[in-house]
Design brief:
3-stranded parallel β-sheet; alpha/beta; 7-stranded mixed β-sheet; single chain; binds ligand L4XM7KOE; globular
């Protein structure tokens, strides 16, 4: 259903984005002449994008049941929808969240990296790289509303955001647990973690494949705020409202200055990284480990 409506916001608020927060805090909602802001919901099968009630903000919800694993389709849809938001200059901030109860994302889709051929592994890894590069370097303000379990690739995705709000439920955990599967987090996963929680904490977390419950994740700096489960999205939106008070150009240049050197590490050797991934993941021993891990996951229910 197309929810096509147009809200007008004053040009002065667009020129001085930080004024919007103040204006709306003063109760300004009058549609006056200015730039058109689309309030149309869009998205695709696995990624829903809805404008939030605050101007310039969208909520991107992943809906790839049962566990929001990052399949090739989900990764592709994510990047396309992010690009749409970036091209629509009315959007300045996005909350990333999940439609799967109790799960933000189970990380990379193990069925994409297990029992397939090298060409498929290469295509898939390119899509994983693309997701990371697009999110990590996005000019938009990104806030992760982590409303459930967030292992491995799910954690990576949340680490690309500018801020993480997590549900304070001890059943959920977040971390880069690759070593528990007998695989290795690549250097750019590692760099993203180091940039967030520092070198020593990352080394320990990566070697042990630690999955942190919310309280520990907050202590180590992997997430920025814990809130009751039913407040994760509303808190993420209010965090975005605070970030919106900063002039975009200054914030974007600062973000780029902080992140570009890390992203360049991958940009300079994308093909080599794909080749490394394909040869690593194709090893018999690695395939056996992954098959065993998948079998354990599937047996859990039986
Ligand atoms: C020299 C250096 C070179 C380096 C080269 C690179 C090396 C490779 C790098 C690869 C990096 C990998 C990153 C990853 O993200 S790997 C994925 C890791 N993910 C996990 O470990 C999470 C696994 N899942 C879970 O722990 C639980 O499912 C979860 C807590 C998320 C939810 O639990 P719940 O009990 O609610 O649900 P189930 O476990 O019953 O799962 C339901 C069904 O979903 C299937 N499932 C779960 N996770 C995945 C997944 N990641 N991919 C695919 N499928 C998944 C699960 O099997 C169930 O399926 P069935 O219904 O068919 O049984």
């Amino acid at each position: 259903m197309a929810l096509t409506a147009v809200v007008r916001i004053p040009t002065r608020a667009l020129l001085r984005p930080w004024a919007r927060l103040r204006d709306s805090a003063l109760g300004w909602m009058e549609p006056v002449g200015g730039v058109e802001v689309s309030t149309q919901r869009f998205g695709s099968q696995r990624v829903l994008v809805e404008p939030a009630s605050a101007a310039g903000v969208a909520v991107m919800t992943f809906k790839n049941p049962p566990v929001n694993s990052l399949s090739l389709e989900l990764l592709t849809e994510l990047v396309i929808n992010l690009e749409k938001l970036e091209n629509d200059k009315t959007f300045r901030g996005v909350v990333l969240t999940s439609d799967c109860p109790g799960i933000f994302s189970a990380g990379l889709d193990l069925t994409e990296i297990c029992g397939r051929n090298p060409a498929h592994y290469a295509e898939y890894w390119k899509a994983v790289q693309e997701m990371w590069l697009r999110l990590y370097l996005s000019n938009l303000m990104l806030v992760a509303a982590i409303n459930g379990a967030c292992p491995a690739g799910g954690c990576l995705m949340s680490l690309t955001c500018d801020y993480r709000v997590m549900a304070d439920n001890p059943k959920y955990a977040i971390g880069l647990n690759e070593t528990l599967l007998g695989i290795v987090a690549p250097f750019w996963f590692k760099d993203t973690l180091v940039n967030t929680i520092g070198h020593r904490a990352s080394e320990r977390a990566l070697q042990l494949g630690l999955l942190f419950p919310p309280t520990e994740a907050l202590q180590v700096g992997m997430v920025d705020r814990l809130v009751p489960e039913d407040q994760v999205q509303s808190t993420a939106l209010s965090v975005l409202a605070q970030w919106m008070a900063i002039p975009d150009h200054a914030r974007q240049l600062t973000k780029n200055m902080m992140r570009k050197p890390t992203a360049d590490g991958l940009l300079k050797k994308r093909d080599e990284d794909i080749q490394n991934f394909v040869s690593f993941i194709s090893r018999d021993s690695i395939q056996k480990s992954l098959q065993m891990y998948l079998a354990k996951l599937r047996q859990k229910k039986g």
